[in-house]
Amino acid sequence: MAILPASCTYHLSPLLQLPQRLASQPYSWPRPAVTAPTSRRFARLTAAALSTMSPEEASLKKGIAELYDQSSGLWEDIWGDHMHHGFYEPDSAASDADHRFAQIRMIEESLRFAGVSEEEEKRPKRVVDVGCGIGGSSRYLAKKYGASCQGITLSPLQAQRAQTLAASQGLADKVSFQVADALDQPFPDGQFDLVWSMESGEHMPDKKKFVGELARVAAPGGTIILVTWCHRDLSPSEESLKPEEKALLDKICSAYYLPDWCSTTDYVKLLESLSLQDIKAADWSDYVAPFWPAVIRSALTFKGFISLLRSGWKTIRGALVMPLMIQGYKKGLIKFAIITCRKPE
């Protein structure tokens, strides 16, 4: 904890001091459909896939699933449908921002950056949401474009909750969700007009395979939108990040079940190697700066604090490294990147 800002250490340290009785009570996501033990269900749904992975990769993906099984209900109660950064005006104050609007704006700005058409005959009809969370982007895109959307996630509880929300919003015929691996997607080649990945790439242990799957399932002429966390680009004289930079990222990786990070340039090179067209990338770090301070502030409300304790140790550990995300952004080490491209027709 020595590297955390003093103010954040002061506010977050009580999490480590509260009675074990509270911390051991599971967070109660107030929906009856999510009561099955998550580790057993994950093992049942993904046993075949896990058996083909290395022990390290299987452990990583199991950890990701359990992290989101534990934390998604808390996130939905406090932040709503969208489990991603918001897009803000630079230098705006986190306390004054409309965070849910900023999350919707992130979707709209991503579509605009990629040049996704609003014209009836050109708008996407088939969408895949890779790393769909509880389906916020899928439902939004289905409503916006009248598109058919399919979402995949490693979390059984997320998939189930996403389907429940779709049904409650009259979208059961438009969107569907399933537990699946983004590195081995259960779709045929060339199926989707829009391939959407909003903050899931950072969890992928094999970035080359990940990008290859995004390209494989994209239809000819289809658009790929990848929004993800990256580390800074290396200078021509550097072969790797500095030891202190690696140490900071390692702490974040441990809490959020992330493999090694890569740079935006690394992603662009992977897309270029697949002969994808109209490749564009931008650093949106300044536009997301208010996000993590706002998340910390929400965790320190009475509701957020108690719910966080009851959500389980994985979620608590994630909360404790939030100040490191702020530190990484301020140092220019962490970059919030958008990379878009088009599959040749």
Summarize the structure.
This is Methyltransferase type 11 domain-containing protein. Helix content is 48%, strand content 15%. By secondary structure, the protein is of the alpha/beta class.
Description:
- GO terms for molecular function: S-adenosylmethionine-dependent methyltransferase activity.
- Belongs to the class I-like SAM-binding methyltransferase superfamily. gTMT family.
- This is Methyltransferase type 11 domain-containing protein.
- Residues 190-198 are annotated as: SAM motif II.
- InterPro entries: Methyltransf_11, PiNMT-like, SAM-dependent_MTases_sf.
- With 345 residues, this protein is α/β, with parallel strands linked by helices.
- The chain has 15 helices and 7 strands.
- It has a 7-stranded mixed sheet, sandwiched between helices.
- Strand 4, helix 8 and strand 5 (218-231) form a beta-alpha-beta unit.
- Helix 3 (38-51) runs antiparallel to helix 4 (55-79).
- The chain is globular, with a radius of gyration of 19 Å.
- The model is unreliable at 1-43 (pLDDT under 50).
Mean pLDDT: 85
Low-confidence stretches: 1-43
Helix proportion of residues, in percent?
40-55%
Kindly report how far apart the N and C termini lie: 52 Å
Q: H/E series, N to C?
A: HHHHHEHEHEEHEHHEHHHHHE
Dominant shape: globular
Beta-strand content estimate: 15-25%
DSSP summary: helix tally: 15
Structural class: alpha/beta
Total count of strands: 7
Strand order of the largest sheet: 3-2-1-4-5-7-6
Q: Report the biggest beta sheet as strand number plus sense, adding barrel if it closes.
A: 7 strands, mixed
Cα Rg? 19 Å
